[in-house]
Amino acid sequence: MGRFGNTSFVNGEEKPVFRSVAGGITRFYITNTANVTPFMLTMSGLQMKLVGGDIGAYSREELIDSLVISPAERYVIEVYTPTPGTYELRNSAPGRDELLAEFEVISASS
């Protein structure tokens, strides 16, 4: 597909699996390094909190269900993982729905 690309990477890997502990908050630093492709990021079953961007920390954080990120933009989000399970980070842009990464959340007593 030329400069649009057809493979998405998270931390330099295709569909990586990350692990965290239930009841915790995980902070993500997101940068879109694609040439021309915007992404609409969603996390199945989890709510995201937008806490910062290109200009630094936001004075008013905002709960969001999805995040649209254009090329060269950067955002900082936090995700609370209340219960154990497997959650997905997806690109749910129009005409494109793809799994980007998985998050395995384990019980704190495990």
Please explain how this structure is put together.
With 110 residues, the protein is mostly beta strands. The chain contains no helices and nine strands. The chain has strands spanning 17-21, 24-31, 39-43, 48-53, 56-64, 66-69, 74-81, 85-91, 98-106. Strands 1-9-8-3-6 form a five-stranded mixed sheet, with no helix packed on it. Strand 4 (48-53) and strand 5 (56-64) form a beta hairpin. The chain starts with 16 loop residues before the first strand and ends with a strand. The model has no long low-confidence stretch (mean pLDDT 88).
- What is the overall number of helices? 0
Question: Main sheet: which strands, in order across?
Answer: 1-9-8-3-6
Helix content: under 10%
Question: What shape does the CA trace take?
Answer: globular
Q: Largest sheet, if any?
A: 5 strands, mixed
Mean pLDDT metric: 88
Count of DSSP E strands? 9
Q: Which band does the percent of strand residues land in?
A: over 45%
Secondary-structure content class: mainly beta
Low-confidence segments, given as residue ranges, are none
